[in-house]
């Protein structure tokens, strides 16, 4: 059973912009999917609707395998990573990663332990006490990914997370993200406008058109690079 079913979803903003038009998409458990398309084609809008941030104008987004509350809202078990890491400047790396746990009421000692574990997983062991301003752009993004995964969500939605980083940092983060995905087995949805990045990262690429917010192709691709898995 798919984790998320997007059925005939369209989104028209109040100003008349038709950002997403009749998209159909099933996200399977454990997949690494890239959502590829030029700037302005509706990738973010679609990703945000999957996250429950903004409702579709028409169509439905179903979570067939999750429980629903009394009003029919699904319990969306997801993490979200934005292009801007949006860390709290007054909190340490550890404090930032702990935040989702703290909001859930997890005991402090347990939250600290789990957050430290996540920081180690993204390669930031030893940086627990560093503040965001003391970290590089790539490291801040690592903190943001650790925060996105700290509740062990079924699905991690990423909106052009590495677009603002230099090429080398971006390449390293791509590799480390893949390794993390192999280890942690979450479903990954990765928004990018880079063909290179989508092919490098994923076996399935959903291609959106420049206009007007349609899915043009849903491709299975073989990684062009030898991987030792
Ligand atoms: P992408 O992520 O592919 O760059 P977006 O989903 O951000 O594309 O935007 C798709 C289209 O919707 C663009 O034309 C954008 O200007 C427009 N758009 C995005 N958000 C809003 C909004 N809140 N109000 C009106 N138009 C919007
Ligand atoms: P954009 O559309 O963001 O400019 P491109 O796909 O055109 O992205 O890539 C820009 C440059 O960055 C290219 O030289 C490409 O080889 C390099 N690049 C993109 N993604 C990666 C990656 N994951 N690892 C290494 N280099 C990359």
Automatic annotation (TrEMBL):
Keyword annotations: ATP-binding, Nucleotide-binding, Transport
Origin: domain of life: Bacteria
Domain ABC transporter: 4-229
Coverage span on the entire protein: 18 to 246 of 271
Family: Belongs to the ABC transporter superfamily.
A GO molecular-function descriptor: ATP binding
Name of the protein described by the UniProt record: NitT/TauT family transport system ATP-binding protein
